[in-house]
Amino acid sequence: MAPAHPPPRHPDRPAGVDRQILALAVPALGALVAEPLFVLVDSAMVGHLGTDALAGLALASTVLVTVVGLCVFLAYATTAAVARRLGAGDLRSALQTGVDGMWLALGLGLVLAAATWAAAPWLLGALGADGAVATQAVSYLRWSVPGLPGMLLVLAATGALRGLQDTRTPLVVAASGAVANAALNAVLIYGAGLGIAGSGLGTALAQLGMAAWLVVVVVRGARGTGARLTPAAGGIWANARAGVPLLVRTASLRLAILLTVWTATGLGATALAGHQVVNAVWGLTAFALDALAIAAQALVGHALGARDVARTRAVLRRTLQWGVGAGAVMGLLIGLLAPVYVRVFTPDADVQRAAVAGLVVAAVALPMAGWVFVLDGVLIGAGDGRFLAWAGVATLVAYVPAALAVHAWAPSGAAGLAWLWVAFAGLFMAARAVTTGLRARGTSWMVVGD
Fold it and tell me: Any transmembrane segments, and where (predicted)?
């Protein structure tokens, strides 16, 4: 299996770097946008079951995304490691790393699925769920957790393919999965009359199908190079060890998101339902901007593996320019069109007003978010996980007082949700922008070689 997009002859020139970025980012964009479409489809369909169902989905999907998000190192660490080995000219070792990552993903997925199913009522209660909202949330979470092994296998296999500079295969698989998810949701929620449980089951089935497809692709490539397919303790442990700093970094991000949901819960069911809409749209834009971060991961890892510092700097500079520009364009569209598209999610006028207020705040912060996401990708591609772990903890510490202040003093409804997003999209993202920006200005993160 060869990389899908080999570097051009003059990769350090702006035009050459742009071609590399676009060749990786455009297919990655399609794949990443397909993932939050799962949440958007669920939100739109469940929203018409009532406010309690939509609020329950907000809590349950937060728990599910948190569990999966904590394991995102399966993609990030694998991308960086595979890209470095590819840059050093060792394709067999690159694919071996991908196979080991998939075995780790399968084991984690099985354990986490069982634990999440058993702890569902406690986890949702800790977020403030009670009454009808809690009933809806537990139902969705328990029906969706059988798909957890598939979700984690998708992360690991996608990370391996990105490291090989193949973002087209994940695009095809993710797009097919999004279509299947929408069809399954429609049939199970309304046709079979399962309600919110049908939404969880449909998502689980779609994710398991995507995982099977991607695993076949990676295994076929590994066989072609003679890489081992059986689990090896040494390789699995190496993947796990490399992922620990990224796990800490991701845990700090997920704790910030959980704190945000907890705060929204305290603002009432209307604000919580509105937050689900804002969060779904924010997730869509974040994943879209992450396409540039993924391109940066693969290209920076490849350049450092090849000991090419000049190309590393060129990738950093151009991906940051693309990130800020793309964030500005998306922010403008999301802010201006918010009063129109919120109607897709809910017929409740109060929830619509709350969602619009939060979306306008989020839209203003998107150019800064583009900067943050790209720098995250650059530093992950460089294997600078230890710094990202410390920076994640520091930014969480900066955000906690702001979120607690909103919980204590903000009004309910639209105004409260707007203040919550000022704290999250404003202060929290600004703290991330400063820490990663200062790191990228130096050279200590640019460690060359395999």
Answer: 21-41, 53-82, 103-123, 143-164, 171-190, 196-219, 255-274, 280-301, 322-342, 354-375, 387-410, 416-434
